[in-house]
Write a structure and sequence with these properties.
The protein is mainly α. The protein has one domain (40-93, 117-282). The chain contains 14 helices and 2 strands; from the N terminus they run αααααααββααααααα. Strands 1-2 form a two-stranded antiparallel ribbon. Mean pLDDT is 88; it is low at 289-299.
Length: 299
């Protein structure tokens, strides 16, 4: 049965609005207008790969995969479990993270720096001790580096698998270089600037990684018990399956996550492409950015 254009348009608007409100929060429209509509220099020009990656529907898969990967560092996971409120306010945490990414990627240089300063102030206050007696501090450059490389690797993997326009080799290096601008501002010492450097840094952390009880519980909560209405559970299950399938093989076993290569390359990946195409169709693109004056430090 054919669906009339008005009905299709209404469905598209409703799905897009629901998704946007989940990710951006109740004031998301105002925040988006300020980010994209405020004139001034930006850290990244319109042609930079970071804009293409962070603006694509593949980020839904990449972001979830990044959370799972980041949880394997016991100090990072202890900080999240004790201070982030991911269980009590998961949507608020998602909205704060998505707003930070949007501001630093698309906003004015002044707003980007202000967002970074706010995050650094929060990191400075996050201190504690793990259940094993290991001290942690969220502002530790070594810990910041892990969070950064796990996030960037996950975002880029997702974009290359599910993005509307995957990057070529030079574009991948340029994306990693773009993200280093934000990482350095956050306090990461000498962040990677090419995909090869990113892979090497990620590999160097592997001896430190393990799945603590907090990490396994976080994985169960994220994958199996997210606070979602019934209608959203099936699409989320597709998102979760693809986020798991995208993890490096060595990251799955500690978290007790299955690996079924044949199924993942066919059924799971097919559903991932279908989901991201649907999200891309439903989400209304942001208004065009005003032509910015490039700052001396812009990438």
């Amino acid at each position: 049965m054919d669906v009339s254009p008005p009905v299709l348009s209404s469905l598209r608007s409703r799905i897009g609005s629901d998704l946007f409100s989940r990710v951006a929060g109740p004031r998301g429209a105002d925040t988006r207008a300020r980010i994209h509509g405020t004139p001034g220099p930006r850290w990244f020009g319109p042609d930079r790969p970071i804009r293409a990656v962070h603006g694509d529907a593949s980020m839904f898969i990449g972001g979830l995969s990044a959370l799972l990967l980041q949880s394997l560092h016991p100090l990072a996971m202890a900080a999240v479990a004790a201070h982030s409120g991911y269980r009590g306010d998961p949507w608020g945490r998602l909205q704060r993270t998505s707003t930070f990414l949007a501001v630093t990627t698309y906003g004015t240089a002044q707003d980007a720096q202000q967002a970074v300063d706010q995050v650094r102030a929060v990191h400075e206050r996050v201190r504690g001790t793990t259940a094993a007696g290991e001290p942690y501090h969220a502002a530790d450059p070594h810990l910041l580096m892990w969070v950064h490389v796990a996030e960037v690797d996950s975002f880029l993997r997702a974009h290359q698998l599910y993005g509307a326009h995957p990057l070529d080799a030079d574009g991948c290096d340029a994306y990693v270089s773009d993200t280093s601008r934000v990482a350095a501002a956050l306090g990461v010492s000498d962040p990677p600037r090419t995909r090869a450097e990113l892979a090497a840094r990620l590999d160097a952390y592997r001896p430190e990684l393990r799945a603590t009880p907090e990490a396994r519980e976080a994985a169960r909560y994220i994958l199996l018990r997210p606070p979602l209405p019934r209608i959203a559970r099936a699409p989320y299950a597709v998102l979760a399956a693809n986020a798991v399938a995208m993890l490096p093989p060595w990251a799955r076993e500690p978290l007790g996550l299955p690996r079924l290569p044949a199924l993942e390359k066919t059924c799971v990946r097919f559903t991932g492409h279908a989901l991201t195409r649907t999200i891309r169709w439903a989400m209304v693109p942001p208004p065009p950015t005003l032509p910015p004056a490039r700052s001396p430090g812009a990438a």
